[in-house]
């Protein structure tokens, strides 16, 4: 029995999507980013930091999305979604898992400052501008990679792609995507996958964004 | 095997430098100044287009993510037993704590940016700084809990590569969060600091440092 603690359109979507790719069913426990349910006592008992994902599996609980991706692919090697030690793509695979969190940390910081600090936000425009520029730089790096391949790794789709599950939904709220045609085409390829569509079906409505684009406010 | 680590004192590259020392293997070290243009030189951008440290050149490949480097180096030298390979009873925890170290790292990076890189008051938001410090504190609560059973290191079986990742994070976090209510984590940091490999990875005297104050208070809102 696998239980995923989940918020729609957050980092836990990476896991929801990967589980669908692997054909593993889980019990889904839904929380909301806005209603304080992450701070409730029953969730505190599950996640000491009060964040999602939290995955109950094999008798324990694991929290970090990157670790969950590694663990699931290692323990189910026959599904071929990881690149395990000895694989020629091992380094690239680990690098993309790390890259995904580097990029996600910029998005998390933008979410925090644009969405969760009040309206109008007391965030510093200099920081918002800097973070958007850093985000654009990570998208540019992806765009370069995706120029000659369909998925992040040359050999084809892998769990590293599912780490982009939160990132690629969130990024267009902060950066205009027209400059990254290969990333846009990649997003379309992702949306065409059956497992992705099934995961979206289970996901629930997003409660983060109230408009289509968050510009840097004028100082 | 040829290994070159690109490093800036007190940056995330310290994790990898420390691990290389723990592994006791041969490597070349290139130290960059975090504040001048050296990370933006064409030669360095060819290695790491994001202009960040660390970068690790290893047998013709270039790596840019410290967590990936730690995992890979531990795999390459299994006899040093600093990883917990697939099938090990601590494997899941080892992976979780390796990635957890980067959760600490992200909050520290946001705080470093606000307190140190953006040094003028109008460039920063006290609301954000205080929120980041509180979130970091909460993240560290998980470490305090893990150490509550009296274990010396994050893995019950003993020191491992994840201590280089988490330990570095704790070191930086101490500049932004008070550890008075986290005695286990404070003792853990002291235990790590006593290791020879940790000391070998510390900046030499007169080095250009990122952190020049012991503690960075949140400015008044
Ligand atoms: N490094 C963690 C980050 C987890 C995380 O920050 N999750 C966010 C959602 S994307 C969360 O739960 N935020 C709620 C909060 O911090 O209160 C991972 O990769 O899983
Ligand atoms: N996720 C990367 C982050 C690396 C990173 O952000 N390094 C910082 C120093 S701790 C850096 O070089 N920053 C320079 C910059 O962002 O301009 C890792 O873990 O290696």
From TrEMBL, chain A:
Gene3D superfamilies: 1.20.1050.10, Glutaredoxin. Residues 1-80 form the GST N-terminal domain. It comes from the Bacteria. PROSITE patterns: GST_CTER, GST_NTER. Signal peptide: none annotated. GO terms for molecular function: transferase activity. This is Glutathione S-transferase family protein. It comes from Shimia litoralis.
TrEMBL record, chain B:
Keywords: Transferase. CDD domains: GST_N_GTT1_like. Residues 1-81 form the GST N-terminal domain. InterPro entries: Glutathione-S-Trfase_C_sf, Glutathione_S-Trfase, Glutathione_S-Trfase_N, Thioredoxin-like_sf. One of its GO terms (molecular function) is transferase activity. PANTHER family: GLUTATHIONE S-TRANSFERASE FAMILY PROTEIN, GLUTATHIONE S-TRANSFERASE-RELATED. This is Glutathione S-transferase.
